[in-house]
Design a protein that fits this description.
- It is a single chain.
- This protein is α+β, with helices and mostly antiparallel strands.
- It contains eight helices and 17 strands.
- The chain has two domains: about 190 residues, 2-Layer Sandwich (Fructose-1,6-Bisphosphatase, Chain A, domain 1), CATH 3.30.540; about 130 residues, D-Maltodextrin-Binding Protein, domain 2 (3-Layer(aba) Sandwich).
- Helix content is about 30%, strand content about 25%.
- Strand 11, helix 5 and strand 12 form a beta-alpha-beta unit.
- Helix 1 packs antiparallel against helix 2.
- The termini are far apart.
- The structure holds 2,6-di-O-phosphono-beta-D-fructofuranose.
Length: about 325
């Protein structure tokens, strides 16, 4: 028998601390948690239930959708549309804002998500995840449109991600630190296993897609060259490298043992000022990283301060251990 704190107990205890809390927010988080359990189940059965492979369609970013991208998106919509907590939703997989169907009541929150991050890893059995961000719907708005979602990351009420790896994990922040929960499949509940996660300030591990090196700007090239020079170079120590190509897995690793993750601005395609999406990747991950004592920047600005231009905006992302991210920011200032 388990004797830990379940995520349900944790959320209710958090709710009790806020006198004015109506329970809406706790209930919304519970629905998100349920959705992630359903997605975890589909991911873990893979080819046995025919969910691998391509869907044969493209999303708004022009990326080929996998079957599990579409399934996960549907699960998130269905779990979160009926209870009356959301005013509207937005997703990586949908060009437009998703309006709550007329038969359901509307709530006061806006939910934004990437239903399955790291999609290129699905078919090869490498960790993927779901990233989400909760914002307040501006007062007096009955039918939220895109502009109601375009709030800076500092306005997020909550950010989190589920990681579908060897264990299924849920990592959450409501602005009061970061907590990690492991799914106990025997009881069907997430149990608090990683309370108050803190990112070490220093690291000797970096994560970047090295195949883009020729497209990088000078400050990033300088930083990575110095890491690669090892003991005999400017940094006078050896660095190690990791690249999972699933942001959820990289951020989870950094939360546990430190590190720096970069998908920086590059010159590959001038129409894209970065690869990762601000509203449902960079913002929630930046809130989590900052709440765990790390730093998150484009290289030039704090990510959480950016005022979004559109739902699917892309931004450069450099996040993780404080001293390393600050060094990269300094290199940008100097260049
Ligand atoms: P994906 O497109 O497969 O969902 O969402 C962006 C992302 O994955 C990140 O999770 C990951 O870090 C990055 O893209 C991988 O990019 P590369 O294919 O360039 O390695």
């Amino acid at each position: 028998m388990h004797n830990g704190t379940t995520i349900t107990q944790f959320l209710i205890e958090e709710q009790r601390r806020i006198r004015s809390a109506s329970g809406d927010f706790t209930s919304l988080l519970n629905d998100i948690v349920t959705a992630c359990k359903v997605i975890a189940n589909a991911v873990s059965h893979g080819a046995l239930v025919g969910v691998l492979g391509s869907q044969g369609s493209e999303n708004v970013q022009g990326e080929t959708q996998k079957k599990l991208d579409v399934i996960s998106n549907d699960v998130m919509l269905q779990s979160n549309q009926w209870a009356g907590h959301c005013a509207a939703m937005a997703s990586e997989e949908m060009e437009e804002v998703y309006q709550i169907p007329a038969q359901y009541p509307r709530g006061k929150y806006l939910l934004v998500f990437d239903p399955l991050d790291g999609s290129s890893n699905i078919d090869v059995n490498i960790s993927v995840g779901t990233i989400f961000s909760i914002l307040r719907c501006p007062p007096g708005i009955d039918n939220p449109t895109e502009k109601d979602f375009l709030q800076p990351g500092t306005q997020q009420v909550c950010a989190g991600f589920a990681l579908y790896g060897p264990c299924t994990m849920m990592v959450l922040t409501t602005g009061n630190g970061v907590n990690g929960f492991t799914l106990d499949r025997n009881i069907g509940e997430f149990v608090l296993t990683h309370p108050k996660m803190q990112i070490p300030e220093d690291t000797s591990e970096f994560a970047i897609n090295m195949s883009n090196e020729r497209h990088w700007e000078a400050p990033v090239k300088r930083y990575i060259d110095e890491c690669r020079a090892g003991k005999k170079g400017a940094r006078e120590r050896d660095f190690n490298m990791r690249w999972v190509a699933s942001m959820v897995a990289e951020v989870y690793r950094i939360l546990n043992r430190g590190g720096i993750f970069m998908y920086p601005k590059d010159m590959k395609d001038p129409s894209k000022p970065g690869r990762l999406r601000l509203m449902y990747e960079a913002n929630p991950m930046s809130m989590i990283v900052e709440q765990a004592g790390g730093v998150s920047s484009t290289g030039r600005e704090r990510i959480l301060d950016l005022k979004p231009d559109n739902l699917h905006q892309r931004v450069p992302v450099i996040l993780g251990s404080r001293n390393e991210v600050e060094r990269v920011v300094k290199y940008h200032k100097e260049s």
